[in-house]
Write a structure and sequence with these properties.
Layout: H1 2-12, H2 25-35, H3 40-53, H4 57-61, H5 65-72, H6 79-95, H7 103-106, H8 114-123, H9 134-143, H10 155-163, H11 172-185, H12 204-207, H13 228-241, E1 246-247, H14 248-252, H15 258-271, E2 275-278, E3 281-283
Antiparallel strand pairs: 1-3, 2-3
Helix pairs in contact: 1-11, 2-3, 5-6, 5-13, 9-11, 13-15
Length: about 280
Amino acid sequence: MQDQVISWFDENGRDLPWRAPEFTPWGALVSEFMLQQTPVARVVPKLTQWLARWATPADLAVDSPGEAVRMWDKLGYPRRALWLHACAVAIVEKFDGNVPETVDALLTLPGVGPYTARAIAVFVFGAHEPVVDTNIRRVIARHEHGQSDQDHPNTARDLADMAALLPEPSQSPRFNQAVMELGALVCTARAPRCEVCPIASSCAWRSAGYPDTGARGVPKQARYEGSDRQARGAVLNVLREAAHPVSRDEIDECWSDAPQRDRAVASLLRDGLIVLVDDEVLALP
């Protein structure tokens, strides 16, 4: 399986910026933050803009968190911008401005969880560790366990499943990346392309006749249109586009549902994405 997947990846892997040999560890870390719950096509142009402005952690650390939120624009889940700014500050203060190399050290950074820590340690620094995202879990569920879909995430179980498949250390980083790409491009959630899969002949799900074992993955996200998330985005966008603090009257114009708008403002304040200048004026942090 390992050789087949790596060979497939060598021929079919996408040419993405963070896979270039000269791409920096900081650039890779920024890309991992941006790729959380955001499609690749939306990330690539924003990543280019971000690194043109803040090429190193030190560049971002000396700027304000509000500028990170402003630059984040409409990528969604803007708390990632605050975490990335805090991460840059921590890298400067604790690691002399260099992205740390080990999983344990990476986990000390704000906003860096088990997946991101392992992705950087493996894909950037070549660590012999399993990496697991939703694409890898899907491939393992089908190929190894004969399931039509993945179970809910379980870090210990999922890492053990992937660790059992890893080839020798010099090949394991590429194998991690290859399985992830296979899940993204071929072993997809809704329309798997089994006819071009390099490991179809050894797939337990295929051998069992593609049984429907139930939808066991992550529940579907609630609708965005008209949601509190959309209201938050509307409020935040007013402040992002303004070059100065904004009055509550200006905020009130961006969303007609007053109770929902007030909830949005309260949650943005709670998350640190906006701050009160005084009782009636708001600004980016």
